[in-house]
Amino acid sequence: MVRKILLLLFFLLLVLLLPGCSSTHVNDKNSSEAKGGASFQIPATDLTAITLDTIEVTDPSLISLLSAELAKAVPSKEAPGNAHPETLALTVNGREESYQIYIADLDTAAPAALKSEEGWYQIPAEFINLLHSLDEYPNYSAVVEEKDKELLAKYGLTPAFLINQLQVKLPVDLLHRAGEYPTTLYWAYNNELSKAINLNLEKALDQQVDVRLYKIVELLPDYLSPRCHTGRAVIVHYADEIVGAWLDAGRHDGFACSLDGKTLEEVTNKSWDQWIVSHIDYDDPLEKELALKSPEEIIQTYYEAINNKDDRRAYACLSRKYLSSYLFSNMDNYYLMNPGYEINDGVGNITSASVVKIEPYSLDSEQSEELLFYQVTVDLEVKEPITFESGRQTRFIYLKQESPSTGWRILSIGTGP
User: Fold this and answer.
1) Contact at 8 Å (CB) between 211 and 289?
2) How confident is the model at residue 16, as a pLDDT?
3) Is 163 helix (H, G, I), strand (E, B) or coil?
4) Which of 40, 145, 191, 324 is a plausible cystine mate for 26, CB 3.0–4.6 Å?
């Protein structure tokens, strides 16, 4: 089935120049004309539409960005491996011409290939990234704050369009209390990425801030594969200045890197486990209580809390690494994070829970003093059989010491070892 995206931009693939049109080679140094073949050319004014899906783009700045990526096309011998063809329809002065564009798996950030009568041309992955972004964010805005554009340009980044503009109240501090939804961890983590470029959210804590979420043209660094195509820039304004900025990866696993491509570990010189200890409220009463429990007691407490509908107590038994997954899993990509646990509330779907048996389980390849494994038999009743039905279940539970002061927490719960 032909997918269609209507994009108004200045582009045309022709063997001969149309009368009255000025044009340039896409890449003079590598063009096929330089090698004795036909050239890939971009007439300045003739293209009126490109069709690959049912979205229309008329903003001149976005048209210019798409044109710039196409201008990087170079001759190629063939389509990339594992590519699939789609029809690319070009409307030129009212005349429509169709071409095949071959797109590899989006997650690989591989370039696409366009097939014409003259042969193959390799199209940058960024061009396909933009096309898919228009499909992902049909309600985008072409308005880009000049100050934001200038900041991103300092780091070689280009905002394609505004995904959303949000008014957000920052937390009072950057400490996480046991069982709370991990909003503070979101801001604490990304404040580290902001500090990498000499910005700091702390001056705006407990204040309302203006957050702009942009889709960027460029791909995320390779080490973030397979999420390279998902890159978004988050820029936080407060009192007429930018106080925070970073790159995120959107739905499912949003934490990414600083604007200059650094990870949390590179910015702080700490692993997650070393970093998180500075963002725990050790004076929280529930934190103190759980810190005294053995690993088996944490498992028992978790299921007792679920059975008693004490959601905060149940979530407090989970490690903060585990809790952070709730921020982005199945997230609406027009936002920074999920609003709360309810979006992925497996705990709330359980109507009753009782532990039958807890047994140590050995995984020699992963065993360590800080990591313990248990095979747990539980009786669970659920409202809806979303991922499992009511009845006796076996769960394999990993526990880790989050810090010497907080004791054991559940790192993961699975149906197999």
Assistant:
1) no
2) 24
3) strand
4) 40
Distance CA(196)–CA(244), nearest Å, equals 10
pLDDT < 50 positions in the chain: 1-40, 42-45
CA distance 13 to 116: 8
d(CA 39, CA 2): 27
Using an 8 Å Cβ cutoff, are 291 and 407 in contact?
yes
Token code pair at residue 268: 């702080």
Sheet holding 119-123, edge to edge: 56-57, 6-7, 47-51, 84-92, 95-103, 112-116, 119-123, 74-76
329 secondary structure, DSSP code: T
CA atoms within 13 A on the CB side of 334: 10
Angle at 44 between CA 41 and CA 49, to 5 degrees: 90
Q: What is the pLDDT of residue 277?
A: 95
DSSP letter assigned to residue 351: E
Strand order in the sheet with 371-382: 350-360, 371-382, 391-403, 407-414
Report residue 382 as tokens. 């659920």
Distance CA 370, CA 225 (A): 29
Backbone φ and ψ of 396, nearest 5°? -105, 120
SS3 340: coil
Query: At what angle are helices 320-328 and 183-195 packed, to 10 degrees?
Result: 90
Residues 6 or more apart whose Cβ sits within 8 Å of residue 199: 242, 243, 244, 245
Query: What is the biggest distance separating any 2 CA atoms in the chain, rounded to whole angstroms?
Result: 82
- What tokens does 176 get? 């996480």
Q: Do residues 222 and 207 make contact, with C-beta atoms less than 8 angstroms apart?
A: no
pTM of the model: 0.85
Asked if residue 324 lies in contact with residue 279, where contact means CB atoms within 8 angstroms, the answer is no
